[in-house]
Amino acid sequence: MKPVIGIPLRYQALKDGRPIVYMSECVRRTIQSAGGIVYPIVPVQDVDYFYTKGNEFPEITKEEICIIDDMLNFCDGILFPGGIKFTPFDRYILEQAIEKKIPVLGICLGMQMMSCYNEDINLNEIDSDINHKQDLDEGYSHEVNILKGSKLYEILGVESLEVNSFHKYCVTKNNIYKISAISSDRIIEAIEYPSDVFNIGVQWHPEISYSFDDNSKKIIDAFIKAAYNKACSKNKTIESVVE
Fold it and tell me: 20 to 30 Å CA-CA from 87: which of 63, 93, 157, 207?
């Protein structure tokens, strides 16, 4: 049995200006390589996702909530990928994932959304001598320090690692998610929800370096394992009801 990984689609515009929703091919390949089944979670609001500003999106309606809930019933894990903006759609998915104890992995923008999903957006533009926005997928940008005692440290077993980096904004401390990694310039690089459920956000992109970086592989594989365990528990519940 393979776990079903729900992935909210992201927003972009073609060269002719037509907006599209999409999933990164790198995300798809990585999740499949790690043993997951990819399940696209499509946007439900009837708005122009690309050209609408993040703070101008309407709240989701009761009908839209029902549609999202139906899609989440299929998911054993949720991966929030990178992108250019997040919306009430993303926030609601995370809220439900926490409530239903669905494992979550947030990447770049996904982590930024997780850091402020239940409060006003609080992101700062980075001002640092360290390069946090590299040009190419290959290679690393800087070192990240992992906090001992964190779930991320349990997964990686190292106090520091080299990471890639593709972001211009950084998160600030919040009252829900705990900080689990920082860079030498004090930028928050990873956060995690204080529970037994896998719910971790990283500012770098382990899906890009999954095939050649051991630490990236450990993060993705730990997420897939948590989703697999969730799938097993769901099946046991269904079996007990049928019996």
Answer: 207
At residue 62, φ and ψ (nearest 5 deg) are -60, -40
Question: Is the pLDDT at 65 greater than 50, yes or no?
Answer: yes
CA dihedral over 210, 148, 199, 185, signed as positive or negative: negative
Could you give the CA distance from residue 72 to residue 66 in angstroms, rounded to a whole number? 10
DSSP letter, residue 219: H
Q: Radius of gyration of the chain from Cα atoms?
A: 17
pLDDT of 199-220, one tens digit each? 999 999 999 999 999 999 999 9
Supply 3's token pair.
């776990």
Q: Tell me whether strands 188-192 and 123-125 are parallel, antiparallel or unpaired.
A: unpaired
Whole-prediction pTM: 0.92
Nearest to 187 by CA among 206, 210, 171: 171
- Strands 37-41 and 4-8 turn out to be parallel
pLDDT, averaged across the chain: 89
In the chain, what percentage of residues exceed pLDDT 70?
89
How far is it, in rounded angstroms, from Cα 85 to Cα 102? 23
Q: Which of 79, 93, 90 is nearest to 207 (CA)?
A: 79
